[in-house]
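Protein modeling request. Please complete all fields; requests missing the sequence field cannot be processed.
Requester role: graduate student
Desired output: 3D structure, token encoding
Chains: 1
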Amino acid sequence: MTRIPYAPALSRRSVLRLGAGASAGIALAPLAGCAGPTGAPGPGAISLGLNRSLVSLDNKLNQFDAAVTVQRAVRQALTRIGKGLRPELVLADRFEMTEPTAWTVRLREGVRYSDGTPVTVKDVSTALKMYAGVNGSFIVGLFPEMPTVEPVDERTFRLHTKRPVPILDQLMANILISPAAGNRPEELSGGAGSGPYVVTSANSGTGEYTLAVNPRYWGRRPTVERVRVRFVPEESSRVVAVRSGELDVIDTITPDSAEQLKGLPGVRLDRTSGTRVNQLFFNFRKPRGHPLADPGCARRSATPSTARPWCAMCSPIRPSRPRASSRSPSRGPYAPGVTSTTPARPASASPRWARAISR
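Delivered output (359 residues):
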């Protein structure tokens, strides 16, 4: 686990450096474009143009790259996903696997919400229960099982699971912590957060928000005083707005748009690693004799038919019982940067074998 002495200051260049989830999948490279401070927000402020409407600053149901970046400016988790998809400490200053099914976590001393109240162990326990209670929650699906909290002292607690979850420190980056008294099993539209910014105006219907620096923030004060968030669905409009200076930052652009912005004065492109799960669905309703008529045969032939350095097809690797601090980089059908308790077996393509067993 990488330790950071305090949360880093948000700057014009780092505010939209996107984090990613901790699930195996296909590695992609999201693109974000940054322009100079010539747009409408004025000195000391930046304007973000998102490709999807931000309906809430709570991520229980709303989960996409740029939304999470903005949400974590207001509400924080125990950890976050940093460079190389590695977990970094945020509200916690210790997060260690001390048993195969238990992690010992300690809250950072002095972490507080924007209303001045401290972040507590009860807040963490309540947050886990509220996420688990949301119908249709995207977050819950990432967890093999939701951990339970055992308090140790005012700042320390243990997270318990029935089975080993070797990436629990990564998964907990998705659980944003809020005061227990005001937390609910639903997206929160208000309330205090521990992040470097507070919400000064919000319109969930249009996806527009204005954030200002949290005067009670426990970490280093951000260098950007105000952030304006806008919903700009058309990519071409976002690119034009960056070129004209109307927007300072846009997210998730295509390679074609990146080429338009590449080399322009005052514009910088940021690329970052990420993971995404792509599911392939086969149509097995085929006449007898067709290669896809037998689901078992189709799965067996799909496994060797594709080179799978980044794609988990039909043979997921089940790690053995982990030991504390035993996690290592994974090899095989997983995204670069994803870790495992045991090295995965190599996965090479053999189209000839795939065709032979599908006949």
